[in-house]
Specification:
Pathway: Lipid metabolism; Sphingolipid metabolism; Steroid metabolism; cholesterol metabolism
Strand content: 25-35%
Strand order of the largest sheet: 4-3-24-21-20-19-5-22-23
Mean pLDDT: 95
Shape: globular
Keywords: Glycosidase, Hydrolase, Lipid metabolism, Signal, Sphingolipid metabolism
InterPro entries: GH, GH30_C, Glyco_hydro_30, Glyco_hydro_30_TIM-barrel
Distance between the termini: 52 Å
Protein name: Glucosylceramidase
Low-confidence stretches: 3-20
Largest sheet: 9 strands, mixed
Radius of gyration: 23 Å
Helix content: 25-40%
CATH superfamily of one domain: Glycosidases
EC number: 3.2.1.45
CATH architecture of one domain: Alpha-Beta Barrel
Number of helices: 11
Number of strands: 24
Structural class: alpha/beta
Length: 518
């Protein structure tokens, strides 16, 4: 065995020892409103395994602008309430949706950045997301071929006129980077990862504009040879990944179909109207999946901003031929401030309760006036938590972040569409930084395991606190509370099954409380 291999094994064994229990953040300040936690090949902070304490006590986990990062605490349940101030009452008989999971996306850029680290640091980073002592990611979105977070433009079937897809082949980015990393993530995860595939563009020869970018849709009509070939492309993708023992829980009908209807759109896109998507699913994609080895793979429509709801859902899901192949509606977060959740997510759920809502993409640093990486931005952590709570309180069953890791510029991205990520890699120093948004995700992904069911929670008076409550499959309760205000807010939680939980939400903080009821 070479000396370098011995060093790698020693580093990995060291991090396994360090990761067994909780450990503290090594904080670094880059001049924004909070800090990042720096991790290297032998050390990274970790909250460790989390289990609610015995009945009569409760656990708390606090992250804040002041620098707390999943700081663990414990309190005693009281028999009597204080009778003053704010009370949050658990209404456990009000039952809503069950959680599918939380996660991020294995883009080409994410894979490039993870693999730019040493073997031990790569392992450390993957453990932070996927291992039991990490934050419990169970969903990974995988782009089908290139997107803007690639270094080049490509699809898997770039031979013009190859309608039977005889020349379909995965790219080096899949075989050498994404697939090995997904296999490693799966090996670390205590459960089976829910993989989700989204395509950005069909091959240029199938499209009206003859290009992967810009305004363009599939040639011909649903049921025609291009539409059939594009559906076959999905099946071929699933077949190729299955050869590497990677199976997909779901596919979407395509990333942001509205983008492909925009003139001069700068990166990969495929335009669909709601009507075209409806007919392609009913005539092509649905039957192709049903006749393949993957009839149980879920189909999620839209995969675009919730601004398009409920109109898009009405057009597609009201059609019985399309609706029978569809399982859910995928939403992105980018224009969430434009349209209230009630009239988009809420109305869609009330009209089509049998189809679940799932958030498939979000990132900070995408706005033109607030672009790229901000190391240590707490404001961005609050943006994440606010959106996740709002989504969960409007029937969404999971929330997927965008790139799992980016470099310090927010790339690579071939069109320079640089954004932020919960993990930022500095390959020169062989370190990575866990952003406040990483911990924002952790407050949900670590605790809301698959099958956790949202229940009612009511406030005794108007409050600045935002909150959501769940009962997990083991019967324990999780309450997540966001305080975006400048003030400390004292409150108590009343769970009629156990009693009163006195607590405090510091200014600009995110708090998870967990307790057992039996």
């Amino acid at each position: 065995m070479s000396s370098s291999m011995v060093l790698v094994l020693l580093s990995i064994s060291a991090l396994l020892v360090l990761s067994a229990g909780s450990s503290k953040c090594i904080s670094r300040n880059f001049g924004h409103d909070s800090v990042v936690c720096e991790c290297n090949s032998t050390y990274c902070d970790s909250v460790g395994s989390v289990r609610p304490p015995p009945v009569g006590r409760f656990s708390s986990y606090l992250s804040s602008m002041d620098g707390s990062r999943m700081e663990a605490g414990e309190g005693r349940v009281q028999k009597n309430g204080s009778g003053t101030g704010l009370r949050l009452t658990l209404v456990s008989y009000q039952k809503y949706q069950k959680i599918r999971g939380f996660g991020g996306s294995m883009t080409d850029a994410a894979a490039i950045n993870i693999l730019s680290l040493s073997a031990a640091s790569q392992e450390q980073l993957l453990r932070q997301y996927f291992s039991p002592e990490g934050i419990g990611y169970s969903v990974v979105r995988v782009p089908m071929a290139s997107c803007d977070f690639s270094t080049r433009l490509y699809t898997y079937a770039d031979s013009p006129g190859d309608y039977s897809l005889d020349n379909f082949t995965l790219a080096a980015e899949d075989v050498q980077m994404k697939i090995p990393l997904l296999q490693r993530a799966q090996a670390l995860s205590p459960g089976r990862l829910s993989l989700l595939a989204s395509a950005w563009s069909a091959p240029a020869w199938m499209k009206t504009n003859g290009a992967l970018t810009g305004k363009g849709s599939l040639k011909g009509q649903p049921g025609g040879k291009e539409h059939k070939a594009w559906a076959r492309y999905y099946v071929r993708f699933l077949e190729e990944y299955s050869k590497h023992n990677l199976s997909f829980w779901a596919v979407t009908t395509g990333n942001e179909p509205s983008a492909g209807q925009m003139t001069n759109y700068s990166f990969q896109a495929l335009g669909f109207t709601a009507e075209e998507q409806r007919d392609w699913v009913s005539l092509d994609l649905g039957p192709a999946l049903h006749a393949s080895s993957f009839p149980r793979t879920h189909v999620l429509i839209l995969d675009d901003n919730r601004l398009l709801l409920p109109h898009w859902a009405k057009v597609v899901l009201s059609d019985i031929h399309a609706g029978r192949y569809i399982h859910g509606v995928a939403v992105h977060w980018y224009l969430d401030g434009v349209v209230p959740a009630d009239i988009s997510l809420g109305v869609t759920h009330s009209l089509y309760p049998e189809y679940y809502l799932f958030a498939t993409e979000a990132c900070a640093g995408w706005r033109p006036l607030d672009r790229g990486v901000k190391l240590g931005s707490w404001d961005r952590a609050e943006q994440y938590a606010h959106d996740i709570i709002q989504d969960l309180n409007h029937h969404v069953v999971g929330w997927t972040d965008w790139n799992l890791a980016l470099d310090q510029t927010g790339g690579p991205n071939w069109v320079k569409n640089f954004v932020d990520s919960p993990v930022i890699v500095d390959s020169k120093r062989d370190v990575f930084y866990k952003q406040p948004t990483f911990y924002s995700m952790a407050h949900f992904s670590k605790f809301l395991l698959e099958g956790s069911q949202r229940v009612g929670v009511s406030a005794s008076t108007e409050t600045d606190l935002e909150f959501t409550a769940f009962i997990r499959t083991d019967g324990s309760v999780v309450l997540i509370i966001l305080n975006r205000s400048l003030s400390e807010i004292q409150f108590e939680v009343w769970d009629p099954a156990v009693g009163f939980l006195p607590s405090t939400a510091p200014p600009h903080s995110l708090l998870t409380l967990a307790w057992n009821t039996h």
